[in-house]
Amino acid sequence: MASATKSTDLLDPEFIGRLERLDIVSRRIFAGRMKGERRSKRKGQSVEFADYRNYVVGDDLRFLDWNIYGRLERLFIKLFFEEEDLHVSVLVDTSGSMDFGEPAKLWYAKRVAAAIAYIGLAKYNRVTLCGWSDRFGPELAGVRGRHLVSKVLGHLSALETGGAGNMTAACRQFAIRHPQRGVVLLLSDFMDKGGYEEGLRYLIGRHYDLYVVQMLSPQEISPDLTGDLQLRDVEDGDLAEITISRALLNRYKQNLNAYCRGLQDFCRRRGIVYLFTSTEVPFDQLVLTYLRRRGLLK
To answer: What would the pLDDT profile of 12-70 be if each residue is shown by its tens digit?
Structure first.
């Protein structure tokens, strides 16, 4: 089981300064209706214009468009999208396989989760963090505000690996507990013997704005192994005795590539944004470059 990390190790001050300029973007509008009476909840930001409609007696005169009246001599009310809290959730795989690699995949996932959570808190979004392995949790739900950054980093730091992954049960529990729409970022190696399809379908069914990051270590992508070996599954203890040859390594790489392509295709066909990364890629590059390119951040 991996030991807990210090919260101060997750984000350094220089990187935090770069995160201050970013915001989390939703590809969908979560407000279900439009109205002209409500102002933005966010200080310093205006509500987003949506449309016009004809004025009727009793409408708020503050939302009359006098420019249109001057041109057409007709009264129109400006409508705006009603702003709601943007819910930002990060689901972190803490199963035994996430302790593998240099750097360990869980450490990498913690840093990515910390960066996204910091941006969410700084922009006054509702932030939820969930770990899972053979059970759901621990969870920190619905926190909001910059003053809770240390609590969020402490929660992430305390996450430890252990147990066999059960993505299906974890996604089902999350979907039950969080029916509201929002942005969901799922961080995992997707090395789950139960598969990923059913779990992702639970999240798809809630119509979340869903992003998936599959992270593998360099040692998994290109193993440097030779000879006769006994391999043990770190999650359930299964043993396998094999002889490593060049042909076997080539077959392994082909199967791994096919598995990752299958996950990518599954996501693409269902509107999920998929991103593959090696933990060899600096995590700040993943956040500042690749997640911006995928549209999660701006």
So the answer is: 999 999 999 999 988 765 443 334 332 344 433 345 666 778 887 777 788 888 888 88
52 close to 151: Cβ distance less than 8 angstroms: no
Residues 133 and 39: their CA atoms lie apart, in Å, by 42
User: Nearest-CA neighbor of 290 among 181, 167, 185?
Assistant: 185
Res. 74 pLDDT band, cuts 50 70 90: confident
Its pTM stands at 0.79
The answer to whether residues 197 and 212 touch, using CB atoms and an 8 Å cutoff, is no
DSSP label of 287: I
Assess contact for 223 and 248: CB atoms under 8 A.
no
How far apart are alpha carbons 288 and 16 in whole angstroms?
A: 11
Q: In this model, does residue 84 exceed pLDDT 80?
A: no
3-state secondary structure of 229: strand
Q: Are 59 and 77 in contact (CB under 8 A)?
A: yes
Instruction: Name the E strands within 3-71.
Output: 34-35, 49-54
| CATH numbers and ranges of domains, the chain | 7-24+86-293 (3.40.50.410), 34-81 (no CATH)
CB 120 within 8 A of CB 156: no
